[in-house]
Specification:
The complex is a heterodimer. Helices cover 47% and strands 14% of the residues of chain A. By secondary structure, chain A is of the alpha/beta class. Chain A has a 9-stranded parallel beta sheet with strand order 5-4-3-2-1-9-8-7-6. In chain A, helix 5 crosses helix 6 and helix 6 runs parallel beside helix 7. By secondary structure, chain B is an alpha/beta fold. In chain B, the strands form 4 sheets. A 6-stranded mixed beta sheet of chain B has the order 3-4-14-9-10-13, with helices on both faces. Chain B has a 4-stranded parallel beta sheet with strand order 7-6-5-8, sandwiched between helices. Classes of the chains: A alpha/beta, B alpha/beta. Chains A and B meet through helix 3, helix 5 and strand 6 of A and helix 1, helix 8 and strand 11 of B. The structure holds pyridoxal-5'-phosphate (PLP).
């Protein structure tokens, strides 16, 4: 299972990396090259975002990538095919990330079935709180997929406990208020929040929103199990091209000792 | 009702985790206010002294004669301060913001009416104010932008997506998730996550309560039909809620744009082009493609140009309680023109959608029948769009002269 797999990986590296791409941005060919570069650079798990026209939880960079991908003709079907291709080709788990309407319109059960056939590990759906998720949870369970839920600094301890009952594989901890792609201050405040998250669940904790360099990843070592790098890789691709991805990811952690 | 915030299968609260606590707080504040009779009294008093309430119900004698059927009455929401029914919702939410102790408000706006109303409320209550408005709407409703800025609001043009109302809503949510501690999002219509559909409807129900009383006083009977335009659905829910329990036919009129067959419209309930979806925090009918991506919509009236619709109206359509129709841009301009000439009333382009359907149906009814049209707003804001539609040569010359004057000066 996903959680176990991540725990095993953690025996090799204290902090794992989860990266994110918007599929089809700037093109599916480039998306494939980015995935390849990330896997070669040692990323342990990836989020593949299916673009949506109304990504309310995403900041300007990812919002823009969503729209460009759609304008370039990406479709849900092409994204699922892409997900299947990378899941077969690369030996790391892949999570789908999208907004609920994409699953809802496809048919939640049919969508999860398709995910399972494609060899994907689970999904993150940021606009689907557990209260609205009965159908999704049942479908994910039926197809042995991990539904990854989100905790935020404003989530109460009580609610953290509830969410930890439904989330599988890992828990995604949003570092701060706001949307993706803004500055996060990696400070003691974050520390207290992560301690609360840790108390709520035994699953690996992934911390996302604003992780952008080696110093951020260093701060998270010992505090979180995974560092999530989202917006920053899109910026790297935009500024340096696909060639920039591998050195960027490799620079986030010290070289492997073994 | 099975779950709070659900109307049949529609509604709900599909929000990012970071906003859950904010919504819990809002639901609580709203429920407390609703249970407190003093709150509604304060609200009514405020609307009476600040916004010309109760607004009158006007007998449209000339139009009635012209069509020769039902007696046509017009509920005058255009007489609200700032020129539209939007004031009702905004002042109500303003009182709630005061109760919650927050100091900043944000809002989305399409036609600009909700933006102007929110900026006005913020000026009156002393709140900081930011308004998100699609770039396309900024261009077609420039006079309203001018007023929002004079009222002290920051207007942020939204350049993403279709650059209209739905994108302004997304931007407002993005702002809210980083600023919810001191900020309230004054959503402008009966859409969005729970409790907005119910809360906005509650504030707008003042229209229907008044209209019912007034039509009974005036005519001694209930209307046969009530007509309202439907963007998100707030003015429609407002007037309909006065008659839901009565034997009165309720008719919602959506934007038919260039015609339902052209695809360039915003008819979610009156056409078969929409389907069930979940976006912007709630479940309803959306104009979307097979993948679930929202489509571009079109209407001459910026305030009706929206991909979703109130979950309450979706439910009322499904249960058969409300009938839906669509009016094309051209029909709207004609109805507007006729209303101006016959009655000296200038409905907003949005409101004129309701007039179109009422005019189509009035002749077939008897003179004993009364119909009520909700004039949700006044049309002066639309002067540029209407002047274009009428291809008014002297107006164009005036704009040219004015531009020359600026260039010279
Ligand atoms: C005058 C007027 N009428 C109607 C609408 C449509 O909104 P709703 O359907 O919420 O009443 C608007 C929206 O801006 C408006 O300005």
């Amino acid at each position: 299972m996903l959680a176990e797999h991540l725990r095993t990986k953690q025996r090799e590296r204290e902090i794992l990396l989860m990266t994110h791409i918007v599929m089809g941005y700037p093109s599916f060919e480039d998306s494939l090259r980015v995935v390849e570069a990330m896997v070669e650079a040692g990323v342990e798990i990836m989020e593949l975002q299916i673009p949506f026209s109304e990504p309310i939880a995403d900041g300007p960079v990812i919002l823009h990538a969503n729209q460009r991908s759609l304008q370039a003709g990406s479709s849900v079907e092409k994204c699922l095919e892409f997900g299947e291709e990378v899941a077969k080709r690369f030996d790391i788990p892949f999570l789908l990330m999208s907004y609920y309407n994409i699953l809802f319109k496809y048919g939640v059960d049919a969508f999860t079935k398709r995910m399972a056939e494609a060899g994907l590990a689970g999904a993150i759906v940021p606009d689907l709180p557990p209260e609205e998720a009965d159908e999704y949870l049942a479908a994910m369970a039926a197809h042995d997929l991990s539904p990854v839920f989100i905790l935020s600094p404003r989530t109460t301890d009580e609610r953290m406990a509830q969410i930890s009952k439904v989330t599988q594989g890992l828990v995604y901890c949003v570092a701060r208020k706001g949307v993706t792609g803004q500055e996060t201050s990696f400070s003691d405040e974050l520390d207290g929040y992560l301690t609360r998250c840790r108390a709520a669940t035994d699953l690996p904790l992934a911390l996302g929103f604003g992780v952008k360099d080696r110093a951020d990843v260093d701060f998270l070592r010992g505090r979180a199990d995974l560092a999530v790098i989202g917006t920053q890789t899109i910026r790297v691709v935009e500024e340096e091209g696909v060639e920039g991805v591998k050195p960027f990811i490799e620079g986030l952690r010290p070289p492997r000792s073994s | 009702m099975a779950e709070p915030g659900y109307y049949g299968q529609f509604g709900g609260s599909f929000i990012p985790e970071i906003l859950v606590a904010t919504f819990e707080e809002l639901v609580l504040a709203f429920e407390e206010a609703k249970a407190d009779p003093e709150f509604w009294n304060t609200y009514k008093k405020l609307m009476g002294s600040y916004s010309c309430r109760p607004t009158p119900l006007t007998y449209a004698e000339n139009l009635t004669r012209h069509f020769g059927g039902a007696r046509i009455y017009i509920k005058r929401e255009d007489l609200n301060h700032t020129g539209a029914h939007k004031a009702n919702n905004v002042m109500g939410q303003g009182l709630l913001v005061k109760r919650m102790g927050k100091g900043r408000v944000i809002a989305e706006t399409g036609a600009g009416q909700h933006g102007v109303a929110t900026a006005t409320m913020a000026a009156k209550f002393g709140f900081d104010c930011t308004i998100y408005m699609g770039e396309v709407d900024v261009q077609r409703q420039r006079p309203n932008v001018f007023w929002m800025e004079r009222l002290g609001a920051t207007v942020v043009p939204v350049t993403e997506g279709t650059r209209t109302l739905k994108d302004a809503i997304n931007e407002a949510f993005r702002d809210w998730v980083s600023a919810m501690d001191d900020t309230h999002y004054v959503l402008g219509t009966a859409c969005g996550p729970h409790p907005f559909p119910e809360m906005v409807t509650w504030f707008q129900s003042i229209i229907g309560q008044e209209a019912r009383r007034q039509v009974l006083e005036e005519t001694g009977r209930l209307p046969a039909r009530v007509y309202a335009c439907v963007g998100g659905g707030s003015n429609a829910m407002g007037i309909f809620s006065g008659f839901l329990e009565d034997d009165v036919e309720l008719v919602g009129v959506e934007a038919g744009g260039r015609g339902l067959e052209t695809g360039a419209h915003a008819a979610r309930l009156a056409s078969s082009d929409a389907s069930l979806g979940v976006a912007q925090g709630y479940k309803t009918f959306f104009l979307q493609d097979d993948d679930g991506q929202m489509k571009e919509t079109h209407s001459v009236a910026a305030g009706l140009d929206y991909v979703g619709v109130s979950p309450i109206l979706s439910h009322l359509k499904e249960s058969g309680r409300v009938r839906f129709a669509a009016a094309t841009d051209k029909e709207v301009v004609d109805a507007l023109s006729l209303t101006i000439r016959k009655e000296g009333l200038i409905p907003a382009l949005e409101s004129a959608h309701g007039f179109v359907q009422a005019f189509k149906e009035a002749p077939a009814l008897s003179h004993d029948d009364v119909i009520v049209i909700n004039q949700s707003g006044r049309g002066d804001k639309d002067i540029f769009t209407v002047a274009d539609a009428f291809e008014d040569p002297s107006w164009k010359q005036f704009i040219r002269d004015k531009a020359e004057e600026y260039d010279a000066g």
